[in-house]
Amino acid sequence: MTITPEEQVSQERKGSLKPVIDAIPSSAYDNPTWKGLAYFARDTALYLGLLAALVFVTNVFWVLLLEVGMALVVSALFIVGHDAAHGALFKSKRMNSWIGHLAMLPSFHVYEGWVLGHNRIHHPYTVRQGFDFVWHPVTPEEYASMGWYKRALHRVEWSWLGSGIYYMHQVWGQKMIVGKPPARWAKAIRRDRWMIAGFVVGMTALFTFIGIAMGHSVAGIVWLDVRTVFLPFVAFSFVIGAAVHVHHIGPEIRWYKKAEWTKFKAQMEGTTVLRIPKGMNFFFHWIMVHVPHHVDMRIPMYHLAEAAPAIADAFPGTIIDRKFRLRDYVANARACKLYDFETDRWLTYGEARREQLALSHSA
To answer: What does the pLDDT look like over 251-272, one tens digit per residue?
Structure first.
């Protein structure tokens, strides 16, 4: 159904996403079963291949190179699971659940915990103060009230090198592993936590047995377990931490108070379309084309690049669309430390300190 220009303007003012969704071609929602299974099978084969290589490679330099590959492959599997968790990868709810659970095992992610935090909180309340917990900024006043330890931790986690620490601590650890879920989600999340625990224990036992069979020393067995089971998770955490940061943090990205927040502002202006080299989409599955994903979670990952230009054409000059450069991520991380919700702008620690000093002198 088409709407008149007057109706579109009215809906935009109310913050509706309907005009945006209407601009997306129907072909962007096609999700044949074979395609989702093909991506899952391909990424799983790469994961198993890298695991096999890590069994025989012990040199630290070559292990680190393989861990870079493992970080990308675990990320690829995670994005497949992420798509399944949104119900976008398959038409079958059961198929989405099965593949989603399996694809998230190497990243140690609790599937139902992810569905709760990501689908039910992050997406519906993107860049909304007090609701969206992913890279939620701290205000200058909140930072000033922190003790030395929390300030030091904030400085580490909000540095461009600290994204993985932030993700493991604030998202994976607090929200997924130890957080207390609502009663209606508790049983499913508890089951999936045990599933992750079983996977970690089982993988550790498997590679310990392999190490014993290969005649390794105790130190050799520990090193085998570390490089096959734990380092891939750590490396993945730094990749996803940085990826989510560039999706929602930047000097031009506003965070909103409840009264000012709308769905249109959040999903069209609160995230980005970042153009990465085409070859990198082999691993990132177009997730860096993030605006259409936030506009409508039902779009499969391999159609995001098709949906983005349709949205941009319908709403010119609205979305942030640019080539991704590592130096931009570093610059954003340095510039965006604290957020002032009164003036709607990001501040560095130094800027916040100078403003507080100026206020104290004028008082």
So the answer is: 999 999 999 999 999 999 999 9
The model scores a pTM over 0.70: yes
* pLDDT, tens digit, 9 for 90 and up, residues 132-173: 999 999 999 999 999 999 999 999 999 999 999 999 999 999
- 274, 262, 315, 301: which is closest to 80 by C-alpha? 301
CA distance 152 to 149: 5
Handedness of CA 345, 337, 233, 199 (dihedral sign): negative
- The C-alpha atoms of residue 118 and residue 84 are separated, in whole angstroms, by 12
What's the distance, Cα to Cα, between the start and end of the chain in Å? 58
- Alpha carbons 308 and 110: distance in angstroms, whole number: 30
Q: Which residues, 6+ apart, have CB-to-CB distance to 69 below 8 Å?
A: 50
**Residue 257 burial (CB count, 10 A):** 12
Amino acid at residue number 56: F
DSSP string, 76-143: HHHHHHHHHHTT-S-S-HHHHHHHHHHHTTTTT--HHHHIIIIIIIITTTTTBTTT--TTPPBPHHHH
Task: Identify the CA nearest to 246 among candidates 303, 312, 331, 311.
Answer: 331
The 3-class secondary structure across 271-287, one letter per residue, is: CEEEECCHHHHHHHCCC
CB-facing half-sphere around the CA of 311: CA atoms within 13 A: 30
